[in-house]
Each structure stands twice: as structure tokens, then as C-alpha cells.
Amino acid sequence: MAIHAADFNELRLDRLSRAFGAVQALKDVTLTIRRGEFIALLGPSGCGKSTALNCLAGLLPSTGGGIWLDERRIDTLRPERRGFGMVFQNYALFPHMTVAKNVGFGLAMRGTPRAEIARRVEEAIGLVQLNGQEHKLPGQLSGGQQQRVAIARAIVIEPPLVLMDEPLSNLDAKLRLEMRAEIRRIHNTLGSTTIYVTHDQEEALSLADRIVVMRAGAVRQVGAPAELYAAPGTIDVAEFMGFRNRVEGTVTAIESGVATLSVDGGSLKGKATPGLKLTDRATLSARPEDMHPGDGAGLPVTVDSMEFRGREFVGYARTAAGAAMSFQAGSPVATGEVVRLVTDASRALVFPGVGL
Amino acid sequence: MRALAADHAPGLRVRLAAHGLDGVTLLVVPAALFVLGLFIYPFAYGFWLSFNPKAGGVLANYGRFFSDAYLYGTIATTLWLALPVTLLNLALAVPIAFRVRLMRRQRLLTTILVIPITLGTVLVAEGLLNYLGPQGWFNRTLLWLGLVSSPVRLINNYWGVFLSLLITGFPFTFLLTLSYLTGIDPALENAAATLGAKPAQRFRHIFLPLLLPGLAITFCLSFVQAFSVFPSAVLVGAPAGPTRVISIAAYQAAFEEYDYSMASAVAIVMGLVQLGIVAAVLGARGLLYRGPAGGGKG
């Protein structure tokens, strides 16, 4: 494979900040990315992940901190001097240029000889499987094909870093899954370093080597997907990782890492997180798939509705206090019926404090 | 079977509606009458009138126009004013629009620029007459600074009309250019920048090709405006000679010679010249990319 990523060892963001007037969109983001890694910046909209990406690309000047590529400081360089490949959310293909011209644009700007441009463009187009579409205009392509062109255009310049800004958000569900696999395949083939911005935890979990969870302009947690999935460090990271149910109560027992929480009308068990103490007020956080109707002392809820999901049912219910709960069940429960929900004690998490 | 088909054949009303004609279509009538009465009829009448000269055959007016240098010369005179003014306006509008598109207080600037349009050509010409005259501020400043020893002549000649057309035409050209420019997705420039294109390359490869079709339209509209110059050619120009534009020829035929037929012929010639230039520009535009100026779906 002739297309390969330019060499460097690590990219460092050092207390990178960006303010828009009084609003701090990015607060002291410090992060080290090693060559070849696939990093996902994950967070809800407005968390600063796109700002971080634009600062990296040089499209937005940072207002504090620095960006270092090995020993070279790059945050003062203009975007055209950084040489990073970027894939935009709306693709940003040049509408007046053919697919081949779009892909070859970066090389042409570098004054690469024509014959070499033709060869590398052909190779990049082959890599994203768009052979035969070279002479079409972007407007004649489907959304998925446009996305492939955008990716080919970004990687053909062999950038040290590929930046992707929610590249799949404009595609339909089926295409999104296809392109997701494609993006990871291309990353593996080229050995490139990719920073991928998304608000979709599933996308981040399936693609990334490491996930950076952001909230309100700051990094909340950095970790491998399995680590973040099983042990989110804070309740808001947990919520972003699919722990949609929250129940508040008082800790009545902690035994070999499992806390028992006395809640409104029953009790629930979950893994104790660091800092949790007996008789504390605490919040249990659990995924719908880790809560089931059980017998005995679970949390009593009134079922609002059930959805059939193939292998199982997903139920929506309400506690006596009115908090929404969702759970999984092997068989349907009638609407209006009261069931007691129990948790999978090894998967639910109990965080110290309430009103989090 | 046939009877059944006849039973189900849709009525006239339904068939008309399928072609987009129904009661609502009647709302077009007032506008159509307006256009017919105030545009098509006068035009057709003038066209017919131009072929009914006071003396001579059907084409006598046109024959006279194209054999008299005092008349056909007005075409070149007018083009010599309208073309450079339009091109200069475009050349000024593009870089200024590039700067303004990044500004936050665009509305204030737009308002200031619209003022010359609303004031009209006569007021601007009168203003220029004072400002650029031998005793005007402009010349006095030049004299005071010692840049010239005697006042520069800027009115009652070619330059007076040129400047007046530039001032009244610029806001229009600029606003059109700005709207075309802001219609180009800013992500395209960002994409070009991340791919290594320097500002000049971004202009040449991205903005210019996407802007050209709009600039062609802007050129046509500005040109037609400038070509029909009349008040400033009389007020700040030299209507007997260097700025004897084609509309003056038409005016003289109509109101000095009282030859409406000849005046109509001049007007038709004027229209044909405009049409020729516009057709040439639009024809060239047809060779350009004219699709959307966005970067993709979304």
C-alpha cells in the first residue's frame, strides 16, 4: 500500500482552551494521542468536541494552551500548513469538481506531479471503493458515496492526523453501520491516526481505541471502550454510556464491593463506586438491560408500556415518586400493573451523593 | 368496458386542475393585465411605430440611424461608458464583498450602501456637480494640499458621467455580489484550507468558479442599468459630444424633432445592443458550472 500515514510519535494537547466572548467552549483540555490510535471525542452537542476538532485543524484559533506534534508546536500554524486531513459533517465536497478532481485537490495544491496525482487518486478511490465514479460531480452521487469521496480526499494527502467531524450523522441507519465498518477498515489499512467526533456512544464504542468523554468544554473521562462501558467514573459519563435509570436512596450495606441501597418501597443492589460510605445518601445508575422484574424487595414501579424487541421486551414504567424507569423483561407485563424491579448487582453502579 | 371507462373519464375541471389550472389561477389575471398594458403593449407599439417612419420605406428609420455617424456613434459612446463602469464596479465589489462577508455589522453597511440607490441618479449627479466642480471640496482639497496647480476637470465630461454611474451602480452590484458570495458554503473554504490551499488558491479554485455564474448575472443587470444612462449624461456630462449616449439620441428624436417613429427605432436599437451583450455573457455563462454552491447533503 503506497498510501501511508506520515510519521510522528505523539500529538499533545496541552491545556488547550477556546473562549467565545465570555463563554468558555473548551477548558484546559490536556490529552496525548499516540500514532496509530483511533480516538473518539464523545459528548452531547455543545460539549466542545467540535470546537476541539476545529482548533486541531486550525480552522478556529485557540485562546489558550498549545498543540504539539512531537516537539513541534503547531497551534500557531494556519490550517493549510498543518497538513491534517479533515472530513466534514456535510462533506464539503467541491460541487464544481469531479470526484477525481476533489480527491486530487490536496495533492494539486502541493504541486505534486500530474502522473503521481493520477496514480494516488486512483489508489484512494479504489480504497473507498468508488471505482468508475471518477468523472461524476458530487451532486450526482448518493450521500454514502459523497462521504467516501470526502474520506478519500482527506487520506490521499497522507496526513499525520485524520480529523472526522460527525461524518456519519447525515446518513441513514443502514449506511451508517456500513460506513462505520469502512472507516475502521481504512484506518487499519493505512495505519493512520484518527480523531473522530461523535455524539453517538455506540459509534464511539465500536470504532475507537480510546474514548474521550467531554462535557461543558472539559474532558470528563478518557478510557478504552470496555473500561468506559463497564466503569464510567461519574454519573453523567454513566448516563452517556447508556445508564439511563437513576434511583436515589440510602446505603444500608456494603459487602465485598456490592452496595445495597434502600429506595422508595424496596431496595436495590449495585457496585459501590470509590468514596461510597455506609448510611450515605447515594444514587444508583443502571442500564435498562440490567433491570428486570423480580420478586422480593425490588423497586416497585407501575408499567406504562411495553415494546417488543425480538428476543425480549423493553418496558417503560414509573416509580411512586414519578421518576421514569426502563427495564428489560422476558415476557410482557400488562400496562398499569405494578412490578418490582431488581438490578444486576455486578452491572449497576452506586455513586455517592444525590441530586447529581 | 368502454362505457365504464367513459363513466370514469375525469371532467374538464379535474383535467384542468391536473395541469395546475383551477380557481386560484384567476389570481394571475390582474398581474397579467398589468404586464400586458404597461409593458407588452407599449413595447409592441414602439416596435410597430419604428417601422412606420415619417418619410420613406419600412426600414427608413434604421437606415437613417446606421448611416448617420452622429446617431450610430452613440452606440460606441454608450458602450465606452457602460462597459468600463460595469467591469470596474464588479472589480471593486468582489474584494469588498469578500471582506464584508466576515463582518458582523453587515446591516449597517448595507443600509449606507442602499442610500445612493434610493436617492436616485439626479440627486447624485447634482451632488457631484458641486463636490467635483472647480470650486468644489474635492478640487479645493487638492489645491490646498498642493497636489495640483489648477482645478482638475471632473465634470461636464466623460469622467463626470463615469463617476456618477460608478456611485449609483456600485451598491446594486455590491449587494448582488455579496448575496452570491454568502451563498457559498463556508465549509468549502475550510475544506480547501485543510487540504493545503493558500488564500489565493482558495479564491482561484473554489470561490471564483462558484462565483462566476452569479457575477455574470450581476454584470448583465448592472450593465443594462448603466447602458440606459440619461440624467447624469446630461447633468454631469458633455451631452453634445463625449457623453452623447444613445438615450440622448432617442430623447432628441422624440422631443426635439417630434419624430416618435425615429425615437422608437433608436430605442429598439438600444434594446438590441443590450440584448446582444447580455446574450453573449449568458451564453458564456452556460459553459460554466452552475449547480448548487453547497458542499453536500445536510
Automatic annotation (TrEMBL), chain A:
GO molecular function, one term: ATP hydrolysis activity
Record's subcellular location: Cell inner membrane
PROSITE patterns xrefs: ABC_TRANSPORTER_1 (PS00211), ABC_TRANSPORTER_2 (PS50893)
InterPro entries tied to this protein: AAA+_ATPase, ABC_SmlMolc_Importer, ABC_transporter-like_ATP-bd, ABC_transporter-like_CS, Mo/tungstate-bd_C_term_dom, P-loop_NTPase, Transp-assoc_OB_typ2
Pfam families on file: ABC_tran, TOBE_2
Keywords: ATP-binding, Nucleotide-binding, Transport
Domain ABC transporter: residue ranges: 11-241
Gene Ontology cellular-component annotations: ATP-binding cassette (ABC) transporter complex
Its membrane topology: Peripheral membrane protein
Protein family (similarity comment): Belongs to the ABC transporter superfamily.
Protein name: ABC transporter ATP-binding protein
Native source species: Salinarimonas soli
Lineage: Bacteria, Pseudomonadati, Pseudomonadota, Alphaproteobacteria, Hyphomicrobiales
TrEMBL record, chain B:
Cross-referenced CDD domains: TM_PBP2 (cd06261)
Keyword Acetylation among UniProt keywords: no
Record carries keyword RNA-binding: no
Record SUPFAM superfamilies: MetI-like
ABC transmembrane type-1 domain sequence ranges: 75-281
Main location: membrane
Superkingdom of origin: Bacteria
InterPro entries registered for this protein in UniProt: MetI-like (IPR000515), MetI-like_sf (IPR035906)
Membrane topology: Multi-pass membrane protein
UniProt entry keywords in alphabetical sequence: Cell membrane, Membrane, Transmembrane, Transmembrane helix, Transport
Chain ranges passing through the membrane: 21-49, 69-96, 108-132, 158-181, 206-227, 265-288
Cellular component GO terms, alphabetical: plasma membrane
Residues making up the signal peptide according to the UniProt record: none
Subcellular location: Cell membrane
GO BP annotations listed: transmembrane transport
Family in the record: Belongs to the binding-protein-dependent transport system permease family. CysTW subfamily.
Name of the molecule in the record: Sugar ABC transporter permease
Originating species: Salinarimonas soli
